[in-house]
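Protein in question quoted in full.
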Amino acid sequence: MNTNADLLNELRIDRSPGPPPSRKGLWIALAAAVVVVLLALAGWWLFAREKPVPVETATAVSLSASTAPASVLDASGYVVARRMATVSAKITGRVREVLIEEGMEVEEGQVMARLDPIDADAQRSLSAAQLSAARSQAASISARLTEAEANAQRLSRLVGQQLVSKAQHDQAVAQRDALRAELVTARRNAEVAADSLRISDIGVDNTVVRAPFAGVVIAKAAQPGEIVSPLSAGGGFTRTGIGTIVDMDSLEVEVDVGEAYIGRVQPKMPVQATLNAYPDWKIPAEVIAIIPTADRGKATVKVRVALKEKDARIVPDMGVTVSFLEQAPAEDEAPRRGVRVPATAVVGQGDGAAVFVVGDGSVVERRGVEAGGTIGDAREVTSGLAPGETVVLAPPSGLADGATVTTEAP
């Protein structure tokens, strides 16, 4: 049984510090708040956000491309040069100097290289000495002949007067005739020596290598000190050429056309060539000839195509794609500006005409345009729209600027 003292002790206030409060409840409250916020965002995403509008789209096409002549056949080939030469010396010799570099333009007759002329100069000196000797001999015989003719003429008068014997006269005449024959031979020897000197001059000139025609150097094959020869007589140690030049005005295209389609190609047929290196550059061309032979292995026929434009960007062995056209494009027709789109893509009329352009993230932009006439089921747009842009076909009435759409091709 509790006493009064015990009861009083129970009523006493305990002022000792209690245990620290627990943070478990605080973390639970924060987690619950985050869950509530995430659930609210998910609900807005599912029910309150604007849903993408399904639309059909098309691509704007350039008017100049859409009005180009139709192609009956497309093929690929390469740029080739009809006039190309690997220039070499006419004689075998050691290269003294090379005066060309790749990419250098040369004129017809321009010196490209020089060979060591020691042998040619020595031969020319010998021929010149032989010519001088032959002329000196002819001059000596001519002087002796003059004396013999005078002696024969004097004895002819004396023998008529019986002052000298006939034998002396006959001897003088024979000597004169012999000297005449020797003079003819000496003069012919001098002519032969002169011809030999001219040949030696040609040999000296052959040590100079000149360009056979005007063109551009595309390869330099020899260096000073190397042996060059028109024939590959020295194996890998003898060069057969100084360099290669190309006449850039003779560039054309060679195309291999399948046998099954060669009937579509005719001489003088208009062609549009496109270099692989410059796909946006359309070069007018024309069929030169169809080579009358076929490649048995590839079942193709070679066609020569002439390029109507000359440009430094066109170089030999470039890849090219050609389109054989039904008719040549009009030269006096200026390229048309603007694009062509389906007529249903344009909304409004006059100054209020507009299209919905699909941009990044499938977000549409309402853009004012200047619309032209109709081309069948298409419409011209002369300004405000670029080729390659995507437009919405038959835009829904509720479609607004900045809306998100889901696109599909019509």
